[in-house]
Amino acid sequence: MKICVFGASSSTIDKSYVSQVEELGRKIADRGHGLVYGAGASGLMGAVARGVYEKKGEIVGVVPNFFDDEDMGVDGRIFQDCTELIRTDTMRERKRIMEERADAFVIVPGGIGTFEEFFEVFTLKQLERHNKAIAILNVNGYYNAMIDMLEVAVKEKFLRAGCKLLYKVFDDVDETLDYIESYKAPKINVFEMKDVKK
After folding, report:
1. Residue 198 lies in a domain
2. Which of 34, 59, 128, 167 is most exposed, with minimal Cβ within 10 Å?
3. DSSP assignment, residue 56?
4. Tens digit of pLDDT for each residue in 184-193?
5. What is the CA radius of gyration of the chain?
6. Is residue 197 assigned to a domain?
7. Going by DSSP bridges, is the β-strand pair 104-107/133-137 parallel, antiparallel, or unpaired?
8. pLDDT of res. 193
9. What is the dihedral of CA 162, 166, 172, 178, to 10 degrees?
10. Structural domain count of the chain
11. Helices and strands (DSSP H and E) totals, the chain
């Protein structure tokens, strides 16, 4: 299985986030899975890649060409030990390839790019463009506010309650991977569901 991990590229985040995401990478490889991700060498992108690499797992990195531009100031640049490195012209193409190559998605803490990636795969699942597992690894409660926001969106009827079945939140690496490995893609039409308790 190829697991796509979306997460931060920032090198200034607290080490407690880094250590847990490195452990995610090690366990992805230990369980016989490969990684698909954005090819970064720093932050949580670098952490998950280092973990997979340490255990000799497969790493598919996908990166836009403009990240080579020294004026970009992109933290970390590119992880040099990817099994396969795919270059793209645009961020849109990068996301498309990651989404297509992945069998499941894990969202770890990140910034605006990670938020965008989560909401894109969430939206596409709602629209039945894919039915892959989406797991949020909520390290240090980082995503509590976002989860609360989604609850408010359901309560105020901006989001259908059935959407809460399209992702699952964990604070433990093993539970996250257990969910992905045991995931049975349900046929869910969120537009027909009136009230769902998660």
Report:
1. no
2. 128
3. T
4. 987 767 666 5
5. 16
6. no
7. parallel
8. 59
9. 120
10. 1
11. 6, 7
